[in-house]
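Form 7-S
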Amino acid sequence: MPRRVPRHAPIGAAARREILRVEHLVAETLRTLPEPLRSAADELILVVEAGGAASGGGGDHGGELYGLFDGIPRGERSGYGDPPARITLYARTLVADFASDEELAREVRRTVVHEIGHYLGLDEEDLQRRGLE
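Output:
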């Protein structure tokens, strides 16, 4: 009989602490976002995961992402059966790259705003022009 591999590997206590730390900072960020970012964030699923993901563009450092937008941007959504748009933040990468609480809080906010920008239809060049890179 073939061995089953769990879909999600169990995480340890340190990873759980990192996730909780970043989740707290995400909640603070969402609470203090200005409009129209706050209402856009209300339309998204926002998840904090332990592991990182390989870089495919901006919002990263050292080849690993801090966050990722996955979905159809707001202006392109049909409204009929579109899967929910999602932002994922990667706690381990964020915590590893930003040692102080202030630096981590600043980068979590920057990453959340950056990924919301993608949901609003902004590409990397647009984000850079608006200071959201």
